[in-house]
Amino acid sequence: xxxxxxxxxxxxxxxxxxxxxxxxxxxxxxxxxxxxxxxxxxxxxxxxxxxxxxxxxxxxxxxxxxxxxxxxxxxxxxxxxxxxxxxxxxxxxxxxxxxxxxxxxxxxxxxxxxxxxxxxxxxxxxxxxxxxxxxxxxxxxxxxxxxxxxxxxxxxxxx
Length: 159
Hints:
Blueprint: H1 2-25, H2 36-59, H3 64-79, H4 81-84, H5 90-111, H6 138-150
């Protein structure tokens, strides 16, 4: 159980840092629309996030449906990245970056929440010999899903 939580946390870190944080900075770069290689970096980051979430969903069967909903959004966005993002104005690109960052960090903190204790007594608290990650925080995972499904402030993704 503890090893699974540790692996989930590692995957959440990869998702947040190598997926969402990488994709977040791409639309804000001044050469975003004119440099196709730079634009491809955003697509690749979304792909990294998608693959990582797919792996995570196989380890967290209680949240598979939620994680796959985020993955679906990432795959949809990645497949239309070169058509969807260049038409955005600077404000929308900023909103996109903020949403990707928040989704990534909601997942990271959802799986890396050390406050969510692992003890089984009514008093709570973790066992004295274990100081690692704990069960995922379903509220943070759901917040990430809500953002991914709705993409507030952005044009709808092509279907």
